[in-house]
Specification:
By secondary structure, the chain is an alpha/beta fold. It has helices at about 5-15, 20-25, 30-45, 60-85, 105-115, 130-135, 200-210, 225-230, 240-245, 275-290; strands spanning about 50, 55, 90-95, 120-125, 140-145, 155-170, 180, 190-195, 215-220, 235-240, 250-260, 265-270, 295. Strands 3, 4, 5, 6, 7, 8, 9, 10, 11, 12 and 13 form an 11-stranded mixed β-sheet that branches. Helix 5 (about 105-115) links the parallel strand 3 and strand 4 (about 120-125). The chain is rod-shaped and about 105 Å long. This is LysR family transcriptional regulator. One of its GO terms (molecular function) is DNA-binding transcription factor activity.
Length: about 325
């Protein structure tokens, strides 16, 4: 059923005049008459009883008139909501955020809320690897994790921040060095985050590349607990720079991992099928606040001796 036919019929009935309806809709009177006849032919019976210049509605005409007003109202509402969505003045955005990453995004959240106050921002906290699985399954539209992501999930990614990974141990553990080779940790006990954290996945990959199996003293789901265990002398914690930049280093040894450098690359991830207007706006805000560039996902998992290849998407 043609929406225009319904619109012409409703306007003609409302104004009780073909002439006035034609002027209101800025079409010819013959167009109004033609469209209403087509509507009557489609329904199979008259809607208007024409008597001279006046007309009355048939029983069917009254039903069509009332329901047509509902349809046209719904169409106006649809148009309004679509325009508001495109203008980012309505909607909800669900973002998966690992607990290790959330401290980077306070300013991002503030900027996004200031610029798009009518977008409901729902944050879902979980480990990076679980967020990757939820994004791949479509449960979350967009999330954050640490590069490289799981190549089996077929995710797309855009890096928004990169920081060095540092080793933290009890005082004197690194002989006053500012850097430490990764293979120097082979004989040291380590306290790591649990295996479902994307950082631990990255570290285990780097251990394999260097050629040793780490001696893990303990694992925790809380980064501050791994730090407390390192301070107590249980082992060496490996954490990104933001977690130790303001750290009280009394009775601690701190050294950046080198040879190879291990970047903690924070990235947005999505399943590659669609990004809503709100999700694209969120990524834009993150790039403005944190910087960032597109990742060529053909090289999501680095081969031996290489790092992911980064490039700006067109």
């Amino acid at each position: 059923m043609d929406i225009r036919s319904l619109r012409y019929f409703v306007e003609t009935t409302r104004l009780n005049s073909f002439t006035h309806a034609a002027a209101s809709l800025q079409v010819t009177q013959s167009t109004i008459s033609k469209m209403i006849r087509q509507l009557e032919d489609e329904i199979g019976e008259p809607l208007l009883l024409r008597e001279s210049r006046q007309f009355t509605l048939t029983d069917t005409g009254r039903v069509v008139y009332e329901r047509a007003k509902d349809v046209l109202g719904a169409m106006r509402q649809l148009t309004t909501e679509v325009r508001e969505t495109q203008a980012l003045s309505r909607g909800t955005l669900h973002v998966g955020v690992p607990p290790m990453i959330n401290l980077l995004f306070t300013q991002v959240l503030k900027t996004f809320r200031t610029k798009y106050p009518d977008i409901v921002l729902a944050l879902h906290e979980n480990t990076g690897q679980e967020i990757e699985r939820q994004v791949a399954a479509g449960t979350l539209e967009i999330g954050m994790s640490i590069l490289p992501t799981n190549p089996d999930l077929g995710l797309r990614a855009v890096e928004v921040a990169s920081h060095a990974v540092w080793a933290v141990g009890e005082h004197g553990a690194f002989k006053q060095k500012n850097t430490i080779r990764l293979d120097a940790l082979a004989d040291m006990p380590l306290v790591l985050l649990k295996d479902d954290f994307a950082l631990t996945r990255r570290l285990r990959h780097e251990f394999r590349q260097v050629g040793f199996e780490p001696k893990i003293a303990a694992q925790s789901s809380q980064w501050d607990w791994t730090l407390a265990m390192a301070r107590a002398g249980m082992g060496v914690a490996l954490l990104p720079e933001p977690f130790i930049s303001n750290l009280n280093q009394d009775n601690l040894a701190v050294a950046r991992i080198a040879e190879p450098d291990i970047p903690w690359q924070v990235a947005h991830i999505w399943n590659g099928r669609y990004l809503s207007h709100a999700a694209r706006a969120w990524i834009d805000i993150c790039e403005q606040v944190l910087g960032g560039h597109w990742l060529d996902t053909s090289d999501q998992w680095p081969s031996e001796g290489t790092t992911p290849r980064l490039s700006r998407a067109p």
